[in-house]
Design a protein that fits this description.
6-stranded parallel beta sheet, globular, alpha/beta, homotetramer, 7-stranded mixed beta sheet, 16 strands
């Protein structure tokens, strides 16, 4: 079977390779991957900054979708022919996170989805919701589950709450779309009025161009009549954190899910303490969250926003496109 | 000022009367009521079955809407001219229920909303959301807050969950409309296909005619692919309880908010225990719930379903209409 | 290996039998059982009333403790020599209950702990906490986890809360002991002053002899100065339910975990609705609860109360002792 | 009546003054204060760094205890003779924090407890639990409620959880004592072995001398067998934050309640994100928390640790003692 392997740090070291076909043991499943989707984490991995201790070669990417082609003994959750997505955390089914549950993640340290076939534990799969295409379904495991987990599991967002979403990358667009399903009013920031217009088409209540309005956190609070937003889905990190705190209402929640605009932050702690804010770190979420989200996606017919699809042989170009920041929604590789 | 008083048990003892105009003391407010709305509780009160110890005369009804016309010293939450609804529980602002918080309810034991003017504590009010008319806003305090509390506070309903709503009375229609805002898929039961059609127009996912399908709980479970519904808003009581339990998924919640179809139930407890169901009794909810709901109503432009409006002088006819069960949504009295 | 098999309904059909020794497949484990413990559920099973559809023969009992003697491929959670308890729900690790998670329970439909060796999935085990003996540890899987789940997961009991526990059977004594660890004040009911005295030695705050005080629910409420208890651990069912509701504060929780005093109840629903009570059905709990409880047991050195220990050959006598109701705490079989 | 006024920034500007006796209006209460207690916030206020916009003169201190001596019209919650504590947040009774609820705090911007008499809203009081002395009760409103809120409301700490407490100041000692009531195992840090010994007498499970073990967070994690602590009550701020994160288990909670060791922090956000930590800012808590805590204090007979008591005329010396950092527990002023 074909895979894309990373043999040394750097995009130039992504190569198409051949590996033996896997056979399922008891409680294991083989999935034919039809599409994979890229996250910023995958880019950091390839560059060698996400997990410098990762042994190479590795098959990158955690997100994908495909079909079960073989099952081992004692498999009860799926059957050949089932359309499935793998879970990012192969061993986190439900409950609180723990060292054991967070260890086994696809795309590092485990081989990921840029492969024709994957050998997975039967517990590490969920059914594809509704009639999503392979490309659409491939975007869910990391990006969409992170957004759901931020809004629902960590945030308890309900109809009428205000959610602020930063930019128009993969997680942020899902946070926008899922926020709308939950009945929230969603404020989106971007440096591009064109992207803000597209965000409004997806249901955003308001958009703020942060180039024009550097104090966008203050503006967001004003949009709520001074009350402040209930929830911020923080993907920027150091470059955006302070304005995010400005945006929040007393007692509001910041879900920290990425650090695209810097990891090291100069923070004044009273800004958190005196207004009783909550900062919740998130690394995707468990399988129960994935399945709950899928029920929402299926009921509402939500369509993930696929920015562009590349063939497997051009996986490197897909990474370069992601690195450019020009995308709106998800970058997908067809396998 | 004019009020409608109940001077003895029975609809025939509802009379239009004159009372002195109230003056606000410190932290008190006078509200000119523009519309009141009826709940089944009000009918039971008038018949003498809700609270036989109630001293008469009393001004019935807990739900209404109006405008602040006078404020006493040290009032900070409202100003003359503010459009407001009273809260059902005048003293329950937030937190867990307690004897003290549940004691002071409008329409019994306190005088209610069938009055031109009401004297209220400034804490016992909320702002009318969005641009609702007086008649629409008058339906919120008891019926809508109960539905919100069932779904959100007690139920934790999120997008993709399945909610079952019984019939098309006031609370049930709100549970349908609010369930839709929350992103839930809502199943409605009714004995009338015409009412089911209207429920679908309001966003219901499925309707079940319980005359045609006596085992409607089993049917509801089938509609979910055998999984069961996540939440039942129980207004029927004894006559519907067993099918409600049948409908629920393991771990599901039944919000018990009314007993229209009987109060005394023959119940087999293992039906609750073995499937880990939760039965949550609800008596409206606190002011924080009301305000959270109002944010959702305002954002989504939700319109309460007003069935029919009666003038104050015909309040008795309004009660008779409610008693007939022919209504769809809320019965309102214009004051 | 030796097992006790039930070959037909009735205590007289419990027989000592020989079965082949199990071998562990991938991700499976063989445990040498040292002690088993009886629950009322086991007695009902043997009598044929718990699960009349159960195929026979079956090895009864869900609770036990032992040592891992062999592990299959890909087992990572345990090693030979580890002292372990099986989990009641072999497939419920964490999260919400579901049909799939509740299906695989020991002692019916799966073979249980009255066996020298058990073949289990590696996920279906927890480490024995602290230095508990085999007999003590054998009491935990069903009885103690149920009590923990009632108090902590369903009840959210914290220090200063009042918990009412009915009688001095296995679950109730654990609810007493665990309630004390949590800092709650625990009220125990019993028909025996001697048992109440023992309950006080275990930390009970108050005892009520329900023979002398038939309105023990009212008495319990009085003990709290009229506020009502926060939580009732209901094991009696129909025979005790009404007084339990009387005991509770507005908004309080009744954890329904057994129906020893009757399954069919004549219930007035407004008793639940008007005081906003919550009735939470419980069937043991997930592995995460078990492990959280074990941390509490280990830290506090809690000692399960073992009433009497029988050898395997006298398993029937153990059941008869349980049926007599004379026990205080748990009945154990040494294997 | 006598008060201690701050007339300009600086300890030297605390002066004993005379003010007219207050009279209660409707729903108001006059309390004769018997004892006040100091928090670090009060010291910062006096120095002019806590709230530089505060208008002077002001009566400092939020914590105290006394007796109701007069009540206005329509007061129902208390009667003359009742022993009470004021609440820190006079207007936050329950529910989520909001701008309105957090505005009215004693000791700034409102006059505080260093006064013979206080005029308070009847809602801004709680009954003194059990038989605490005035000096003991005076320590509760800010310090103890903050600790309770960290552990219970924000932390959900249950028996068997591990809690790390920094140092032996007022909040930390309460977090230790309350953590023990909740059944948690509590790790205390200090620079003094003598203080650690006293902490062990109060029930601490382990103590770490952070002078001897600069990587005390790593040590704390080791003490839990590598799992990490469930909860950190953070009073140090910048100087301790990083080790606190080291100590926590994946998914653990840091309650941020003070910044004694620095407010400005250089923080690497992935340390929070990748391990799914939660940072919860806290500013005391609502009245419901206070009353829940008081039930726990009364049941367990918890005795607040009073370090030293000063007469009102020597209030300045009390502040100096607090500033020295030599105290263990609370500094009190007798009035």
């Amino acid at each position: 079977m074909k895979v894309v392997e990373l043999r040394a740090w750097g995009l130039e070291n992504l190569v198409l390779a051949e590996r033996p076909e896997p056979q399922p043991g008891p409680r294991q499943v083989v999935v034919r991957v039809r599409a994979a989707s890229l996250n910023y984490r995958d880019l950091l991995l390839v560059r060698g900054t996400y997990n410098p201790k990762q042994k190479l070669p590795i098959v990158p990417c955690s997100d994908g979708a495909g079909v079960v082609v073989a099952v081992g003994d004692r498999v009860t959750r799926v059957r050949p022919g089932d359309r499935v997505c793998p879970t990012f955390h192969q061993a986190w089914l439900a409950g609180e996170p723990s060292r054991e549950r967070l260890r086994a993640t696809l795309g590092s340290p485990l081989d990921g989805t840029l492969a024709e076939l994957m050998l997975l534990d039967e517990e590490g799969l969920v059914a594809i919701p509704g009639d999503l295409s392979d490309e659409q379904a491939a975007t869910l495991p990391c990006a969409a589950v992170t957004a759901w987990n931020a809004l629902v599991t960590a945030g308890g967002v309900v109809a009428g709450d205000t959610v602020l979403v930063q930019g128009t990358g993969g997680v942020s667009i899902f946070a926008l779309q899922l926020g709308v399903l939950l009945g929230a009013r969603v404020v989106v920031t971007s440096s591009s009025d064109a992207k803000l217009a597209r965000a409004r088409e997806l249901g955003a209540w308001e958009g703020i161009n942060y180039k024009e309005v550097p104090a966008w956190g203050v503006r967001a609070r004003e949009l709520t009549g001074g009350r402040g937003v209930d929830h911020v889905v923080e993907v920027g990190g150091a470059g955006t954190f302070e304005q995010s705190l400005q945006a929040l209402r007393p007692g509001g929640t910041l879900s920290l899910i990425g650090v695209l605009a810097g990891a090291a932050l100069e923070l004044r702690l009273p800004a958190i303490q005196m207004r009783m804010l909550r900062v919740q770190g998130l690394l995707v979420g468990h399988r129960d969250s994935f399945e709950a989200m899928n029920r929402a996606i299926a009921h509402h017919g939500l369509r993930p926003v696929v920015d562009q699809v590349f063939p497997l042989a051009e996986a490197r170009a897909a990474f370069e496109h992601l690195a450019s920041g020009a995308h709106f929604g998800k970058v997908v590789v067809r396998i």
